[in-house]
């Protein structure tokens, strides 16, 4: 009798466990609205679809995650899932992505709470649309303004030239590691006027640990990536907190502090809204943590992949190099170094950078939360987490969004492309990369990179 009961109960319990998310989040909370949701499944309790997501992105074929949805439900462009601790809708079509990212009335920031704890509730990803616009107004000109970019160009150029020269004498290097140091040095100078190697190395180690936890499961237990990431976040808070407090004291000691604008930190300390409200230390710390992270990771990885792709395709490398050589021939006599006008007149190199951003897709997910029920195509989205992943490229509006879109477009996009353009200009003209392990396996989390960090030698061209 007991055996018969067990044989009857166990399948029921398994069914209940497997459908717990569906019963809790769809049947109980949405009622009849659930029938308007896109196809998909919410997976197992707590875990949802995260195991299959992490398994796919730790394999040689990360597209297998979305392929499983395509094979089961067809190419519908939207799928329901349970990701990063919340019921979600994965949006993959260009039209739907464009709608989600541009409609501020219907969609707000929807990053997972676990990510918010790491990046910061006062950073660009955590604040409301209104606060986001206010913060963009404060930071846009000092980061992306024409005068600011022209000023940064001189420093970027100097650091790129000296770094390439140093790498050429170092023998084997981890190319990606050195590029991340390069871009971190640039962003540290822009925001903090700091060139301290000791501080940069310490902060870079903490950022490496932080990023490993951003797309991990939120398990706050010693030994897990998320636990280590939270510790890194606390260390970054302490470091930046000390810097902010020190700068405030320095400015208070100087009578002309209101006219001081050495770097981005000064701009943040002086910024105030129409009501005279200034940013608190906590807000400034979150902005610094976010900007310094985004400002070096994406640029460094894009430089590496652009270099790899060009050397894998010599024909395109020669076209990109010829454009740079032709530009130098047309320079006025006596001009030394690049000008911002020249950087903005590199059409082929710009295409190389865009293609690299398209193929690599540095930020594979962006999150939005529906403020109310929203109908997109044939589906009705309740206020659930929204994300998008690129599976392929269709050349039309909404299909190429490397820096996001809408009012939450990445505020440092022009600075990032400037750094990448300057680096590729000097690399193409004077150097080549000889990889030690050209067939090195690729790791896809938290960002796509060769497992050996692109180990190789930088060789000067004869």
UniProtKB/TrEMBL annotation:
Is the keyword Ion transport assigned to this protein? Answer: no
Quick one: a GO biological-process term for this protein? pollen tube development
Question: Which InterPro entries does the entry link to?
Answer: Cyt_P450, Cyt_P450_CS, Cyt_P450_E_grp-I, Cyt_P450_sf
Q: Does the keyword Signal apply?
A: yes
One GO MF term on file is: heme binding
Any one GO CC term of this protein is: membrane
PROSITE patterns, A to Z: CYTOCHROME_P450 (PS00086)
Keywords, A to Z, come to: Heme, Iron, Membrane, Metal-binding, Monooxygenase, Oxidoreductase, Signal, Transmembrane, Transmembrane helix
Q: How does it sit in the membrane?
A: Single-pass membrane protein
Q: Which cofactor does it need?
A: heme
User: Where does the record locate the signal sequence feature?
Assistant: 1-20
Binding residues for heme: 410
Pfam families referenced in this protein's UniProt entry, alphabetically? p450
**Cellular compartments annotated:** Membrane
Query: Which family does the record assign?
Result: Belongs to the cytochrome P450 family.
What is the name listed in the Swiss-Prot or TrEMBL entry for this protein?
Uncharacterized protein
Tell me which species this is from. Cucumis sativus
Organism placement in taxonomy = Eukaryota, Viridiplantae, Streptophyta, Embryophyta, Tracheophyta
């Amino acid at each position: 009798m007991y055996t018969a009961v067990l044989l009857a109960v166990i399948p029921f319990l398994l069914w209940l466990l497997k459908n717990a998310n569906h019963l809790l989040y769809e049947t109980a909370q949405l009622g009849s609205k659930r029938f308007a949701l896109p196809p998909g499944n919410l997976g197992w309790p707590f875990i949802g679809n995260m195991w299959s997501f992490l398994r796919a992105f730790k394999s040689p074929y990360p597209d297998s995650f979305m392929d499983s949805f395509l094979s089961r439900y067809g190419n519908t462009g939207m799928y329901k899932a349970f990701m990063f601790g919340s019921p979600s809708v994965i949006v993959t079509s260009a039209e739907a992505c464009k709608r989600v990212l541009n409609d501020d009335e219907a969609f707000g920031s929807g990053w997972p709470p676990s990510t918010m704890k790491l990046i910061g509730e006062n950073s660009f990803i955590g604040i409301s649309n209104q606060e986001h616009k206010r913060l963009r107004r404060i930071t846009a000109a000092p980061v992306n303004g024409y005068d600011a970019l022209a000023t940064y160009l001189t420093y970027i150029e100097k650091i790129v030239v000296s770094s390439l020269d140093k790498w050429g004498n170092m023998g084997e290097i981890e190319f990606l590691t050195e590029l991340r140091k390069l871009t971190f040095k640039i962003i540290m100078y822009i925001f903090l006027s700091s060139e301290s190697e000791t501080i940069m190395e310490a902060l870079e180690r903490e950022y490496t640990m932080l990023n490993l936890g951003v797309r991990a499961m939120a398990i706050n237990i010693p030994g897990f990536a998320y636990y280590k990431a939270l510790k890194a976040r606390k260390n970054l808070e302490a470091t930046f907190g000390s810097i902010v407090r020190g700068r405030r004291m320095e400015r208070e000691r100087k009578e002309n502090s209101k006219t001081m604008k050495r770097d981005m930190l000064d701009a943040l300390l002086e910024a105030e809204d129409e009501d005279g409200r200034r940013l608190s230390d906590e807000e400034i710390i979150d902005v610094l943590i976010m900007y310094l992270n985004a400002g070096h990771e994406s640029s460094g990885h894009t430089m590496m992949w652009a270099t790899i792709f060009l050397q894998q395709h010599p024909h395109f490398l020669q076209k990109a190099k010829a454009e740079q050589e032709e530009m130098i021939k047309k320079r006025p006599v006596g001009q030394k170094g690049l000008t911002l006008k020249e950087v903005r007149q590199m059409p082929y190199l710009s295409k190389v950078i865009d293609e690299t951003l398209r193929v690599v897709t540095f930020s594979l997910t962006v999150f939005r939360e529906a403020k109310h029920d929203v109908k997109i195509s044939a589906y009705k989205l309740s206020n659930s987490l929204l994300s998008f992943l690129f599976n392929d490229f269709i050349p039309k509006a909404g299909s190429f969004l490397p820096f996001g879109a809408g009012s939450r477009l990445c505020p440092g996009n022009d600075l990032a492309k400037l750094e990448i353009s300057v680096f590729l200009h000097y690399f193409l003209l004077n150097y080549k990369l000889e990889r030690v392990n050209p067939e090195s396996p690729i790791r896809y989390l938290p960002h796509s990179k060769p497992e050996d960090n692109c180990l190789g030698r930088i060789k000067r061209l004869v």
